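Hey,

The postdoc asked me to send both predictions to you directly instead of through the lab channel. I've kept everything plain text so nothing gets mangled by the mail client. Protein one:
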Amino acid sequence: MIYMSRNIIKNIFIKNYKLYFIILLIFFDFVTKLFFSNYFIEKKVNIFWDYLFLELYKNTWIAFSIDLPYLKIITIFVICLIIWYYTKYEKKKNNKIIDLSFILIISWAIWNARERLVFWEVTDFIWIKYFSVFNLADIYINIWIIIYLIIIILKKDKHWL
């Protein structure tokens, strides 16, 4: 009986690992934003001279300070489009690397969308001088893009995948 229940729990975890990883990434992004929102008000911490530093910033725009009309509607549409594309085309491939890349993008999209829909702004705190301000969710999307592009390039060569 105990062995059967352990197997059932193990199978449930294995089947839902993607959902758990998404929840973990969202939670990590939430905790960092909460920390910076509470402890970095009017503080600036230099990491690498004055080129990389931590400072709280409430961003009402999208990437690179682009002001976009109907941002909430576009946000929901893009999330639905990403999830639809993944479930229709990529999930069938059973490729762990592709799954990981989509876990990253979905985690980013859900949490940033939540902030944008509820508060009309996203909490950013990592600054690169002369470039941009961003948060962990933005890092997730960049990792997703890099992984996905590498997969596309390697598939063309067919050496790796």
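Protein two:
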Amino acid sequence: MPLTFTVDLEEHRPNETYSKRFPAIMRDILTFLEGRNVKATVFVLGKLAENDSGLIKEIADAGHEIGFHSYAHVHLNKDTAENFKQESHRSKAFMEDLTGQAIYGFRAPAFSLTRQSLWVQDVLQELGFSYSSSVLPANNPINGFPGAPAKPFLWSNGIIEIPAPLAKIGPLSMPYLGGIYLRYLPIFLINHFVEREPDQRSLWLYCHPHDFDHGESYYTIEGTSMLTSLLLWFNRKNTFNKIDQVMSEKLCRNSMPFIEAINAGKYEGLEVFNPGCEIP
């Protein structure tokens, strides 16, 4: 059973008066992956790549796939197609020149590919992307796409979509293999969901450098309540250990970046999703 390890590499500090912490944490993640012989897909912000190009080159030189995470983490529903196209074209070319590898994958900020931002499909195709991993196929307080397939599918233009893995707890569906869900859910429950996953291509784990950063000082994140900010800040100390328990020897052995899995034919035969009708 394959499990793709993915990282959303983004800046977390609220302003420049706070120290820049993600480079050191990202290097810790690289060391963790090297120790398990795992190659990841790392979705990088274009703005971050410009300012920390040495780190991005380190990631690529270590054999990890570089994907694109937008230029400045603007949610798609707050962007325009033309602005997104211009920023993405420039950033994609810059990162390809920097790393010496083509960029095929895109992940929208905060899973913001929803019914309100379907315009992004055509822009991705025009810019030469092959796949997206940007849909959370359920209701969510931030961004969600209820009615979208829970398993990998094709958009009508041929772009592959690899949606966030979901688990159901009562009436709730949650992306249990990443972010605060991964940090707070008990390990026995996470492993239970992994073992029950009927479509092995659907398994991928996502994290951000701040998910591991237990030394970061608390601050209230702009636009969120104190409670939400506390939840995002707490429970980071054991993230490496929890991921290590999820990534069993079998999962590590079969782990590969998204583009390698696509090239190996693991996403062939997908159904086309028409947002006007739901696929069971």
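Summary for protein two, as requested: The first strand starts at residue 4 and ends at 9.

Thanks,
C.
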